[in-house]
Automatic annotation (TrEMBL):
<protein>
    <submittedName>
        <fullName>Uncharacterized protein</fullName>
    </submittedName>
</protein>
<dbReference type="GO" id="GO:0030623">
    <property type="term" value="F:U5 snRNA binding"/>
</dbReference>
<dbReference type="GO" id="GO:0017070">
    <property type="term" value="F:U6 snRNA binding"/>
</dbReference>
<dbReference type="GO" id="GO:0030620">
    <property type="term" value="F:U2 snRNA binding"/>
</dbReference>
<dbReference type="InterPro" id="IPR027652">
    <property type="entry name" value="PRP8"/>
</dbReference>
<dbReference type="GO" id="GO:0000244">
    <property type="term" value="P:spliceosomal tri-snRNP complex assembly"/>
</dbReference>
<dbReference type="GO" id="GO:0071013">
    <property type="term" value="C:catalytic step 2 spliceosome"/>
</dbReference>
<dbReference type="GO" id="GO:0030619">
    <property type="term" value="F:U1 snRNA binding"/>
</dbReference>
<dbReference type="GO" id="GO:0005682">
    <property type="term" value="C:U5 snRNP"/>
</dbReference>
<dbReference type="GO" id="GO:0097157">
    <property type="term" value="F:pre-mRNA intronic binding"/>
</dbReference>
Length: 189
């Protein structure tokens, strides 16, 4: 009974948050200044995975077709993405298969192509918005040219450069992130 009430409360909070976010950001999301540039960046990132592929299966051809269609008509693609973001209230199914290489298994996920394009655009939009609002320090922001190990190295260097970070002589401890979430939603929108 408690678990069901907790799930209902969580669902209500999620819906209220989504409704509040869509009301506050519907005007900015529908008329965003750099949205076509962000879409092109997202499409470039999605298209990178097909640069080396010689043979494509049906699912990959469909996704590449949607990417090319979005390149040809970005305004229509943006309106479809924004409509999808504001109206989608449920999760989509993700298919998973495993490639067996005898020594280990590699998971292969099948995600709806429109869902992939929407997620890629949302990722670019959120990173750009976070950068504008200075939500993250410079040394943790990923760059397109940086491989993940270099990003981890920069993160560690940023922490080690803090003065007396590892001093625990008086019982203190190191916390990676400590913040109050007051007005956090307003900074995101």
């Amino acid at each position: 009974m408690v678990h069901i009430l907790h799930q209902k409360r969580e669902l209500q909070c999620t819906r209220q948050l989504r409704i509040g976010w869509s009301q506050e950001s519907s005007s900015t999301l529908s008329s965003y200044k750099h949205d076509t540039k962000l879409l092109i960046l997202a499409l470039d990132r999605l298209k990178e995975s097909y640069a080396v592929a010689v043979r494509l299966n049906q699912h990959q051809r469909e996704e590449l077709g949607l990417i090319e269609q979005a390149y040809d008509n970005p305004h229509e693609a943006l309106s479809r993405i924004k409509r999808h973001l504001l109206s989608q209230l449920s999760f989509k199914e993700v298919g998973i298969q495993f490639m067996d290489l005898y020594s280990f298994l590699i998971p292969v996920y099948e995600i709806d192509p429109l869902e992939k394009i929407t997620d890629a655009y949302l990722d670019q939009y959120l990173w750009y918005g976070a950068d504008k609002r200075h939500l993250f320090p410079n040394w943790i922001k990923p760059a397109d040219s940086e491989p993940p190990p270099l990003l981890v190295y920069k993160w560690c260097q940023g922490i080690n450069n803090l003065q007396s970070i590892w001093d625990t002589s008086e019982g203190q401890c190191v916390v990676m992130l400590q913040t109050k979430f007051e007005k956090f939603l307003k900074r995101l929108t």
